[in-house]
C-alpha cells in the first residue's frame, strides 16, 4: 500500500509542472493516475500518449514516489539513446530539483548500459586474446584510422571517470572499441579480475543499486530478464517507454548467428590452450560451412538440406570437442591472464556450439504450428560474410514468463493502439490472454483535424518494385513547390530515397539533403535551421526526427511500409500465425505497416503551433480492404484524396512563414 506520509502523485505532478514552468494537461493527469493505480494494484498497463502529452513526467512522478515508498529502484527502459539522454540530462535533474523538498530526499538516478559500453581497465592494460582484424587487412587507410582511434581511447582511458563509451566525442569504430571492452560472458568477474575493485561496469552497476531511478535500454532489460545472472538491480516496477520497439529489440537480443568468421574467431581464441589437431578439426568444419554458405541462395530455410544438417552437426561436435579439451571452466582462476584467455575461448566456442544446436533443433516438427524458430541465410555484403541466422517465431512466451511474470510493467508510446486497439501489440508482448493488464489512450493535446491534413494520392498507380514511378516524382515536386521546401520525405528503402533525391535535385530550386550525405544528427540540424531545406531518408529516420516549427510543414510517405515479402523472419511469422488459424497478414504485416505509418505521421506535429500536411502517395491507403485498419492507427487528421486541397493549404502556410 502507498505511504500516506508521501504526497499524492497529483500533488507531486502539480508541484513539478509549476516548478518547470509548464501547465497541467488532462492527458498527463490521466496518465499519472493510471500509472500510480497500476503500481498500487500490481497490474500491467499500456498507455498510448500522443506527442505533447508530457508522458515522461507522467511516469517519472509515480516512479519516483514508488521508489521512495518501497526503497527499491524503478527501472525505466527506452529504445533510443536520444531518449535516454533526455531523461538523464534534462527530465530527471529538473524533476529531482523540483520534488526534493517534498520527498524524504532529493530523487537520485543513474544510467546503466551493457558491459560492452564500458572501458575494461584490465583489457586496456593486460594481454588479451587479439580480436579478429581481418576486416582491416584489405584497406591500409582503415588500419591507420583504427590506429588513431585506439590511441585516442588510450589517452581518454587515463582521464575518464566513468569509462562510458558515449563520452568519446567524436565516436570511435566498433573495431577500435572492441580492443578495450568485454562482453558479460568474457568478463572474469569482479572478484577474480585484478581490476575488479575499479571496474567501470561494476561501479556503474553499484551506483544503479543505490538510486531511485535506473535508466537503461530494451536490450539490457531483455538480457536481465532472460539471463541467468541479473544485470539490473533488484526492482519490482519497470516502465518501458518507446514500447512499440520492445518486440524487435528483444528479438535482436535472442537472434543467433553462425558464419565461418565466428568459427575462425573461436579457433583463434582457443589458440594454444588445446592440442592443435583438435582445433584443426573445428577449423576444417568452419571451412566446410564457408563453402556451403557461399554457394547457397539467401533466404528462409524451411527444410534442412541434408548437406547443411551434416555440416552443422560437424560444427557442433568439433566445437564441443574443443570445449571438452579446454578442461574445467574455473581452471587457472589464480592467473588472470590465462583465466581471461580461457573465458574468451569458452565464450566463442559456446556461441558456435549452442547456435548450431539451435539451428538443428529448429527442424523435425510434425506441423508448422509446432515450429518455434526460423533459420535463414543472410547473403552478407562486401564487409560481412554470408551468415546463418536463427530467431524465435514469437517472443511473447519469453516476455510473459520472464518480464511480466516477475514485476509490474508500464508500457507507453505515442503509438500502441493499432487499428484502434491494443490487442495486436498485447499479443506480441504475451499479454493477449492475460486479465492482469489494461490499455488506455490518454489522447493528445493537438487538435489534429484543425492542425493537419492527411492526403492520400488515390489517383496515383500502386507502387511497383522498379523504383519510383514518374507520376510519384511529379507529385512530390508539386507538393514541395507548394510548401516552399520544408519537407521531410520518408521512403520505404534507401534506394528509393536516393533515387528521389537525384531526380528532384535537378527539378527543385530548394536545398535537398539525403540520409547518408552526413551524420543524421547534422542533417536534421541543417534541415531545422533552414526553412527552405528538404530532407529525404528511410525508415531509420522516422523515429529520430523532432523538428517543431515552420521548418517542417510537409511529411511525404512514398508507400505503405509493409515488410518485404522476402523478409525471412516476418514472412515466417505470418505463416506461423496462419497455421494456428489466425490472419497472418493482419497480425504481422499490417501491424508492422500501421506502426511505421503512425510513427512517420507523428513527425508533423511536434509543438502546439505546428501545422501541415501528411501526404501518402500509395493509393492503397484509400482503396485496399485493410485501409480502415491502417487509417485507424493514425492520428485523426482531416482526410482528403483531392490533390488541390493540400497544395492550397501548403501555399497558405508558406506565405504565413
From TrEMBL:
<feature type="domain" description="Helicase ATP-binding">
    <location>
        <begin position="14"/>
        <end position="286"/>
    </location>
</feature>
<dbReference type="InterPro" id="IPR006555">
    <property type="entry name" value="ATP-dep_Helicase_C"/>
</dbReference>
<dbReference type="Pfam" id="PF13307">
    <property type="entry name" value="Helicase_C_2"/>
</dbReference>
<dbReference type="InterPro" id="IPR011545">
    <property type="entry name" value="DEAD/DEAH_box_helicase_dom"/>
</dbReference>
<dbReference type="Pfam" id="PF00270">
    <property type="entry name" value="DEAD"/>
</dbReference>
<dbReference type="GO" id="GO:0004386">
    <property type="term" value="F:helicase activity"/>
</dbReference>
<keyword id="KW-0347">Helicase</keyword>
<keyword id="KW-0378">Hydrolase</keyword>
<dbReference type="InterPro" id="IPR014013">
    <property type="entry name" value="Helic_SF1/SF2_ATP-bd_DinG/Rad3"/>
</dbReference>
<dbReference type="InterPro" id="IPR045028">
    <property type="entry name" value="DinG/Rad3-like"/>
</dbReference>
<protein>
    <recommendedName>
        <fullName>DNA 5'-3' helicase</fullName>
        <ecNumber>5.6.2.3</ecNumber>
    </recommendedName>
</protein>
<keyword id="KW-0067">ATP-binding</keyword>
<dbReference type="InterPro" id="IPR014001">
    <property type="entry name" value="Helicase_ATP-bd"/>
</dbReference>
<dbReference type="InterPro" id="IPR027417">
    <property type="entry name" value="P-loop_NTPase"/>
</dbReference>
<keyword id="KW-0547">Nucleotide-binding</keyword>
<comment type="similarity">
    <text>Belongs to the helicase family. DinG subfamily.</text>
</comment>
